[in-house]
Design goal:
single chain, 314 residues, alpha/beta, Rossmann fold, 2 domains, eight-stranded mixed beta sheet, 49% helix, DNA-binding_regulatory, hydrolase activity, AB_hydrolase_1
Length: 314
């Protein structure tokens, strides 16, 4: 009898462990899919139709060239636009936010162009026409940024002053890129940057936990395992502040945020500002503008902020 009970116990234990492992693996894979595809690439392409006319108006009468930059770390190409500003020795490399594309940067692009900059604007991975799989909150995207900076230096103008500009999640990408390698960055400008992408993922975990009764911590645990095994990083690495604190960012840095921003509240820019261990940093808080709308709604004031920053650190 005892022998039979022991066998039954072992069978039940094995079944329980097997079911738990299967559920954990399934949950990890599903969490991984959700984390790395917040906005599907197809949706970012569809979004282009919403602002394509504005981009075409911006590009009209400008020297625009579509280029493809080979990724040095992965096997994809980075689609980009190079807009040449006649007789310019300055280039702004522009990094868009989540759900956007290289065609969405026309508001800030026009302002930088008016300030005398040529523009190199590219599609982040899994966005627009960049076919690299997985969105990673700037972690892997940062390698594309470094490739674009290197392209500008080696293929456009080896002596040009290079400005790296990041909008929203593109700000996180830019900061991680600068933390990896600051060699080709003369100035860093961040518009409504994300300080810690965990704030976004945690909200999703909380929502799923509430609606599906799946513990958020379990989703994070299993998702982290898949992220580490598949892509080599965990959710700890999508905290931009962590990267900043482990780097020496000594190039002039300008952070622009807004007191009315509900997506990246002004404390995010303030957290980034405090984390940067440098005297060459400025922060400007605009009044009354929604997320990244300052340049669109008041380009004259936006241009003045940029011009004064570049003049101070020329």
């Amino acid at each position: 009898m005892r022998k039979k009970l022991k066998i039954i116990f072992i069978v039940i234990s094995v079944l329980f462990i097997s079911v738990s492992l299967f559920f954990g693996a399934f949950l990890g894979v599903e969490t991984f899919k959700g984390l790395t595809n917040f906005t599907p690439r197809k949706a970012t392409i569809e979004n282009i139709s919403k602002y394509k006319k504005e981009y075409e108006k911006f590009a009209e009468n400008k020297d625009v060239e579509e280029v493809k930059i080979k990724s040095s770390k992965f096997d994809h190409e980075i689609p980009a636009i190079f807009i040449k500003n006649k007789n310019s020795d300055k280039i702004c490399i522009m990094v868009h936010g989540m759900g956007a594309s290289k065609y969405s940067m026309y508001n800030q692009g026009q302002i930088f162009y008016d300030l005398g900059y040529s523009l190199l604007i590219y599609d982040q991975r899994n966005s627009g026409y960049n076919k690299a799989k997985y969105s990673t909150f700037g972690v892997l995207e940062s390698f594309d940024t470094l490739d674009c900076l290197n392209y500008a230096r080696e293929n456009i103008n080896s002596k040009a002053k290079l400005v790296l500009f990041g909008e929203s999640l593109g700000g996180a990408t830019s900061l991680i890129a600068a933390s990896r390698d600051k060699t080709n960055i003369d100035y860093l400008v961040l518009d409504c940057p994300v300080s810690d992408s965990n704030e976004f993922s945690d909200k999703v975990f909380e929502k799923v936990e509430k609606e599906e009764n799946i513990p958020g911590q379990l989703m994070k645990f299993t998702g982290n395992i898949c992220l580490k095994l598949k892509l080599g990083f965990t959710l700890k690495d999508i905290n931009t502040i962590k990267w900043i604190k482990n780097a020496k960012l000594d190039m002039p840095i300008l952070i622009i945020n807004s007191d009315s921003d509900k997506i990246t509240p002004k404390y995010m820019g303030e957290d980034i500002y405090r984390a940067i261990d440098s005297k060459n940093k400025e922060i400007y808080t605009a009044k009354g503008y929604d997320h990244t709308k300052f340049a669109q709604e008041n380009p004259k004031a936006y241009k003045k902020v940029l011009a004064e920053f570049f003049e101070k650190y020329k």
